[in-house]
Amino acid sequence: MYSLAIYSGLFAFGGWNYLNIITDELKNPYKNLPQAAMAGILISTLIYVLANFSYFLILTPNEILARDAIALTFGRKIIGPVGNSLISFSIAISTLGSLNATIFTTSSSTRKTFTINDWNVTL
């Protein structure tokens, strides 16, 4: 469990690290970056709190403790068998969004590395 907590913390820190790489891509970063950061934090927090509130509203404590994937149990109880697929699809889309951000920032940092150095190589 300790390693999972460390990995989760490093994953969250990676997002902030990517944010620093992408700052060059923003128009008017002194204005837009704080606004985007605050909006992202507020929206993410709101979604997280509402999701957890709805889990506790619909599921019993025994159902929450008995399952590892609470969202799938929630979807199955609310919508039925389709809910299971809908929640799984939503998780897959979220994972693809994270992969997209990783590819974008990695390629951007690689391009900047080759451009900044004295190699005179641009990709």
From TrEMBL:
Q: Name one GO cellular component term.
A: membrane
The residue stretches assigned to a coiled coil in this entry are none
The UniProt entry lists membrane topology as: Multi-pass membrane protein
Q: What is this protein called?
A: Amino acid permease/ SLC12A domain-containing protein
Q: What is its main location?
A: membrane
Keywords carried by this UniProt record: Membrane, Transmembrane, Transmembrane helix
Q: What is the superkingdom listed in this entry's lineage?
A: Eukaryota
Pfam families per UniProt: AA_permease_2
Subcellular localization is given as:
Membrane
Please give the Gene Ontology molecular function terms for this protein. Answer: L-amino acid transmembrane transporter activity
**Transmembrane domains' residue ranges:** 6-23, 35-58, 78-104
